[in-house]
Structure to design on (236 residues):
């Protein structure tokens, strides 16, 4: 298994990314989900969580700098909202799918069997891991170039206002046009094992249920509940 891990071919992924790594182990680690070493405890293999942490910070800095330079007339609030949407899990997972990161993920058998290769949270984390790996191997300039090239379409769509992804923020802004109170989110139910949980969340405003959402994380379920709430508000 150790040899399988070390020999896992990263050439095709490098070609997709347009980057030849000096240290291929960084890229391999970036796509190693925690389930893989967890199922192989005798092997000295590290998962991508630390790489993801670094990539998240690099993405945040890169995106902030890019938006600051590209939109010099935008106020801080508008830039912050744009960045929040662009670095959100739904956008990250979409980009990960576009570049077929799921094909290269190293997953444990349990995660593989429960659909982990298509799970948005895993894909989003792996993309951040790859950004962290690019930064470590090639530096900030290369990471910036990769981010701009892969996020440029979403940046244009977000600028046009047609790419609503942060439904929680939109719901709060919609409600607070007529009230100082905020919507509240409650976990209605949790199902499944720890590695494959499903959360059901309800959103309320002034003790009135506005909608329900189901997702693989609380945040995902909250976003879906907010989306349903917005649709219900439109009908009202």
């Amino acid at each position: 298994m150790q040899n399988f891990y070390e020999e896992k071919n990263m050439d095709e992924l490098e070609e997709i990314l347009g980057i030849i790594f000096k240290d291929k182990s960084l890229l391999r680690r970036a796509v190693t989900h925690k389930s893989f070493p967890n199922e192989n405890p005798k092997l000295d293999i590290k998962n991508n969580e630390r790489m993801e942490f670094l990539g998240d910070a690099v993405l945040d800095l890169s995106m902030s700098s890019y938006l600051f330079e590209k939109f010099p007339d935008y106020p801080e609030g508008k830039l912050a909202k744009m960045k929040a949407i662009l670095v959100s899990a739904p956008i990250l997972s979409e980009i990960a799918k576009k570049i077929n990161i799921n094909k290269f993920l190293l997953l444990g058998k349990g995660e593989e069997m429960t659909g982990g290769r298509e799970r948005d949270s895993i894909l989003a984390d792996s993309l951040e891991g790859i950004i962290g790996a690019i930064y470590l191997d090639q530096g900030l300039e290369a990471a910036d170039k990769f981010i701009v090239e892969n996020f440029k379409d979403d940046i244009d769509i977000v600028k046009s206002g047609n790419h609503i992804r942060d439904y929680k923020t939109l719901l709060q802004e919609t409600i607070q046009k007529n009230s100082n109170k905020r919507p509240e989110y409650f976990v209605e139910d949790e199902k499944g094992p720890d590695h494959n949980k499903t959360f059901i969340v309800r959103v309320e405003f002034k003790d009135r249920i506005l909608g329900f959402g189901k997702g693989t994380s609380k945040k995902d379920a909250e976003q879906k509940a907010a989306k349903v709430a917005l649709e219900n508000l439109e009908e009202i």
Observations:
- The first helix runs from residue 2 to 7.
- The chain has two domains: 2-160, 167-235.
- The mean pLDDT is 87.
